[in-house]
Amino acid sequence: MSFAQYMDIALYDESIGFYATSGRAGRRGDFLTSPEVGPLFGALIARRLDEEWFALGSPDTFVVVEFGAGPGTLARSIAFAKPECAPALRYLMVERSAEQRAAHADHLENWLGDLDAAGVDSFVRGVGPGPEFASSPIAPYGVTGVVLANELLDNLAFDIVRHDGEGNFERLNVHLAEDGLEFVVAPTEVPASLAVVLSSAAAGEWMPLQEHAVQWVMAAIDRLERGVVIAIDYGASNAEIAARPEMGWLRTFVGQDRGGHPLDAPGSCDITSDVAVDQLATAVRPTVATTQRQFLERLGIAQLVEEGRQIWSEKATAPDVEALRARSRIGEAESLLESGGLGDFLVLEWTI
Ligand SMILES: C[S@@+](CC[C@H](N)C(=O)[O-])C[C@H]1O[C@@H](n2cnc3c(N)ncnc32)[C@H](O)[C@@H]1O
């Protein structure tokens, strides 16, 4: 099978897939994402949602579709931040893993349940006092609002390909040998729309072919009548990714550590790649592309940290939960803005 087929099973198969069984984002999980650093990230995303709600003319129903919501931590932080759009907010967590969706009810007031297609449809068309939250494996079309994905695209199945400088491509297939799984090189075709970008890599270097991520961008844009698609992830240009020594772009994670070879013990670890931004741009070029640092600075992270310092200094002698949360913003901001870490992540926005 192709590596993409293998990866889809290893991550998402209902009985053995990493995300269907043990895999989790979070401090007690397998890797730390921005929402899992603490509530500050969600407070800033809440500001971005408010910006969009106002830009759309404060509609009575404002839909946020969060893809790859994991255990629902970002939604909880957004609810906690009480954005101005809250009365209009219908927030749908689209998560492929039933195991992770089952966690969404925890600590989320106004959670309306795990919905089927008909339920999703009426949820996103509902009016009345928000915020309301719901979960589903299914996403709606024809919505006004925001489609959001934090660290989803790096987790969508990709193939591993290279070219010979003369327009011929090969890919790595996964083969069951006597002593386990192994890679086998096979000739392949690549989509014409991606051939130019893939050819920008040096001949002979393996790189990810991220067709599913490209298709996700196209579908995400199609889902919106008006609004914005926001995807946040680690990424670089295709040529930069391919140039990483020893396929350094292909990584596995488990228990907050790097995992082993991606073909060892399928289902036991996360499999991920840097996202090739110029492959995504073959779908539609992003309206805005910034680093996470620039994005969070524009949304006022410094002001929220300063506010946290003030609250802490007023209550330091007898700190309550609010004071501790306020103090924690300082460390959270350092993590979210870190060079060589989360601060260098890319925020891609497509305004519709
Ligand atoms: C790396 S986790 C990120 C979780 C969360 N967004 C965060 O930043 O902490 C990726 C999540 O995307 C989910 N996922 C993968 N493919 C998906 C798809 N096509 N639709 C919805 N969720 C998907 C996985 O099950 C997993 O929970």
TrEMBL record:
One GO BP annotation here?
A: methylation
**CC annotations in GO:** mitochondrion
- Where mainly found? mitochondrion
**Gene3D superfamilies xref list:** 3.40.50.12710
Write out the annotated subcellular location. Answer: Mitochondrion
Return the InterPro entries for the record: NDUFAF7, NDUFAF7_sf, SAM-dependent_MTases_sf
A molecular function GO annotation: protein-arginine omega-N symmetric methyltransferase activity
Keywords annotated in UniProt = Methyltransferase, Mitochondrion, Transferase
UniProt-listed PANTHER family? PROTEIN ARGININE METHYLTRANSFERASE NDUFAF7, MITOCHONDRIAL (PTHR12049:SF7)
Protein name in UniProt? Unannotated protein
